[in-house]
Amino acid sequence: MTPTLSIQNLTIEYAVRRGAVQAVRNISFDIRRGEVLSLIGESGSGKTTFGLGVMRLLPTMARVRQGSLLYRRDAASDALEVLKLNDAALRAFRWKHVAMVFQSALNSFNPVLRISDQFADTAHAHGYLRGNLLAARAAQLFTLVRLDPERVWRAFPHELSGGMRQRVMIALALLLEPQLLILDEPTTALDVLTQRNIIDVLKELRHKLNFALLFISHDLSLAADLADRVATMYAGKLVEIGDVFTIFQSPRHPYTTGLIRAVPTLTSDRKDLTSIPGSPPDLIDLPSGCKFHPRCPLASARCKSEEPELEDAAAGHQVACWNWRAI
To answer: Distance between CA atoms of 110 and 87, rounded to whole angstroms?
Structure first.
């Protein structure tokens, strides 16, 4: 199957006074058509930078050192090299082909404009529907995300709750029918019931509209509930990727294992939580070899001198670890 987005050797750095922050390092994988891929890892592992890089919304201090982002709307379409799009083509690409929902919906909206005006601005920028046709399309989307169209359409952002704003943001992201939706911690600062509601909405939308979804999160329970496949990032690099059942039942990278063991569960007999020792590395001055080796219980001499690349641990399951067979 032709992937919606094919990422090859993507490397992103931030230029700061101390040097280059290696936020994303040589990442390669595909996002398949209609699938949900969860990208997990600690804060500072490079997840958000990766999402912003796909949208080409990186701050001025960031630069893509190398890589390729090939997007195809469908199997019959020609591939677009996202990193080579000019300003006009990039403006058309965003929201129509790939859209992003950010962590704080309140900060994503203009506080002095009604929701209807913000939908109208997005539609106008892409030559989309206007007037009653736009209102009807928005009402359809609001219904899909379980909101009352009459309550939301003329409201200001501050008149809506956090969960409502986040669902409005999802509806706005889907306005132009993109084939890839990127969600960066969409349930941050929301209560558990609202989180559950949003995850249910995303599941329902995904099945009805058949778009691909990149779900960026450090909440493993949400990632496991939503994903078809899971990818683990550490120190800007992909260290494990596989289907959701394999990753959570038989992880092969010590970092993925550590993340899972640090999460409380209602069904496990394990009583004690085990945290990962130490702290994430300095992305300006990375350790030699495997970047996880200072925190890894399985670290060997080879781990300290050579950095492993992804290799097949099983069909559809890749891991970057010299000692994965010992797990």
So the answer is: 23
- Average pLDDT for 86-104: 90
Return the closest-CA partner of residue 43 out of 165, 170, 184: 184
Nearest to 36 by CA among 70, 4, 1, 74: 4
Select from 47, 57, 78, 82 the least CA-distant residue to 68: 82
> Distance between CA atoms of 65 and 57, rounded to whole angstroms?
15
Tell me the Cα Rg of the chain: 20
Q: Which phi and psi angles does 149 have, rounded to 5°?
A: -55, -40
- E strands in the chain: 5-16, 19-31, 36-40, 62-71, 80-81, 98-101, 180-184, 212-217, 229-234, 237-243, 311-314, 317-319
Distance CA 80, CA 256 (A): 33
pLDDT of residue 222: 86
Cα(100)–Cα(93) distance, rounded to whole angstroms?
12
Query: What's the CA gap between 306 and 320, in Å, rounded?
Result: 11
Q: Give the bridge partners for 6, in sequence order.
A: 30, 70
Q: Is the CB of residue 33 less than 8 Å from the CB of residue 212?
A: yes
Decide: helix, strand or coil at residue 283: coil
Matching residue, tokens 């007999």:
269
Helix (H) or strand (E) holding 173: helix 162-173
Gap between the Cα atoms of 214 and 53, Å rounded: 13
* DSSP symbol at 79: P
287-319 pLDDT, tens digit per residue, is 999 999 999 999 999 999 999 999 999 999 999
The token pair that represents 138 in the structure block: 């928005």
Taking the C-alpha atoms of residue 118 and residue 110, their distance in angstroms, rounded to an integer, is 8
pLDDT of residue 196: 84
Contacts of 57 (CB under 8 A, 6+ apart): 100
